[in-house]
Amino acid sequence: MTETEKKSRAFFLGEGFLPADIHAHPLLRDYQRDTLIAEMSAALILTWAFNYNGLYKVLNGILTIVYFNEKLPVYFTLHRLPETPASAVRRTVDALYDLSRKAGLSFLQIRCIEERFLNEYESMDGYEIQTEYRDYDSEYAYRTVDFLELKGSVNLNKRQRLTKLFKRQSVSFRPITNKDAGVCLEIQNKWCDDKDCAICASYIGCEKKALEVMVAIFDERFHKGLFLCYDGVPAGYVIGETLNAKTGMAYFAKSPIQNYFLYLLYMLTKTCFSDIEYVNLDSDVGNPGLRMFKTHLGVYELWRKYICTYRKKEDNAP
Q1: pLDDT tens readout for residues 231-281
Q2: Are 228 and 264 in contact (CB under 8 A)?
Q3: pLDDT at 228 over 80
Q4: Which residues of 196-225 are buried (b: 16+ CB within 10 A; e: fewer)?
Q5: Looking at the DSSP assignment, which residues form a beta bridge with residue 227?
Q6: Which is it for strands 55-59 and 18-19: parallel, antiparallel or unpaired?
Q7: Directed axis angle between helix 183-192 and helix 207-217, to 10°?
């Protein structure tokens, strides 16, 4: 964090905001019931929190989180329950704007706004509002039926690869439990052995650190996980979660053995998400390799996350 960000963060701590760490997991889970966006889920917030120094507080029944990362302006996310009225959103935006100004910030920025809620955030009078989105922030969502069937010539190569893997008697799967979730870290370490840390972490940070948090909060009652076993020994893992009747999330998947990544995602979807509508694989974070993989994985929808930046005319007068 920059010195300015440190001062702003200290201000919010003084206003009763608390660190968004694993102790906040139960509260964050309660607020993710209606979310469609992976980045708004409790698991992703907490696993990558070390990168963003997040603080949270409930205002007007809305869970608000403020993030501090020197690569981005200070920004907020608002987490609402399904029954939250638009009027509570307005009151919260007003409160956060006043707090932001007192913290020395020249504007209020709210990120990760779902398209279905965008009108509420854009129709607040008294503000100059700038709305934007970025393609690399949009999240890739696949209908589970399309993902599992892999129909058409575009999916021929994937069907052939999966068919070969299905025939391998040495390959099996078993659920990840609370007791053996730590084995994921052993697999991740093997995957990391031949990787350049600086390059790997250049987009969103160290995935191994994020996985350590995921293992710490892993709960088989609601998290979904599978080990890919080769001759009975875990050689890959995939972790996700069913958020609601519409959406499942795939958070982490790794195997040091080449060509098993698709197999892991397929088996997670088949085993854990076959009765829901979509599986969300998050964004490509601007990584060309991830973009190539996700755009060629099958028929997909891009779920946009919007950014609204608020300024008041009187606050920006010379």
Answers
A1: 889 999 999 999 998 999 999 998 887 778 888 998 999 999 989 999 999
A2: yes
A3: yes
A4: eeeeeeeebbebbebbbbbbebbeeeebbb
A5: 174, 237
A6: antiparallel
A7: 170
- What number of residues does the chain have? 318
E strands, the chain, in order: 18-19, 55-59, 62-67, 75-79, 108-114, 128-132, 139-143, 171-175, 223-230, 233-242, 247-254, 278-280, 301-303, 305-311
Whether residue 208 is predicted with pLDDT greater than 70 in this model: the reply is yes
Q: What is the mean pLDDT of the chain?
A: 89
Across the strands, what pairs with 140?
A: 302
- Please say whether the beta carbons of 236 and 255 come within 8 A: yes
- For the sheet containing 301-303, what is the strand order? 171-175, 223-230, 233-242, 247-254, 278-280, 139-143, 301-303
Q: Which pLDDT does position 318 carry in this prediction?
A: 45
